Amino acid sequence: MADHKHGEMDITVQEKTFDGFISWVTKGTVVIIVALILLALIGA
Fold first, then answer.
1. CA distances, 8 to each of 4, 26, 27, 30 (Å)
2. pLDDT on residue 1
3. CA geometry: angle at 13 spanning 23 and 29, to 5°?
4. Cα 35 to Cα 18, 21, 24, 25, 27, distances in angstroms
5. How far apart are CA 32 and CA 38, in angstroms?
6. d(CA 39, CA 32)
7. Which phi and psi angles does 3 have, rounded to 5°?
8. Which of these, 6, 10, 36, 42, is most buried using a 10 Å CB contact count?
9. What sign has the CA pseudo-torsion 17, 19, 24, 28?
10. What's the whole-model pTM score?
11. In this predicted structure, what is the pLDDT of residue 17?
12. What is the pLDDT of residue 28?
């Protein structure tokens, strides 16, 4: 079995996936907050 050496693995794909996930979560959170504000203003 090969020895693991910290920092040698290529993680660019994982980083892109994580960045995309964080982007979607942030946008989704903003949409939900805006929807809640609109509901509060309308009085529904």
1. 8, 30, 33, 37
2. 63
3. 10
4. 26, 21, 16, 15, 12
5. 10
6. 10
7. -80, 140
8. 36
9. positive
10. 0.71
11. 98
12. 98
1-44: per-residue pLDDT in tens?
Answer: 668 788 888 999 999 999 999 999 999 999 999 999 999 999 86
The predicted structure's pLDDT at residue 8: 86
Distance CA 5, CA 44 (A): 58
Q: Which tokens is 13 given? A: 């794909």
Name residue, tokens 């020895």: 3
Our measurement of the distance from residue 14's CA atom to the centroid of its chain's CA atoms, rounded to an integer in Å, reads 13
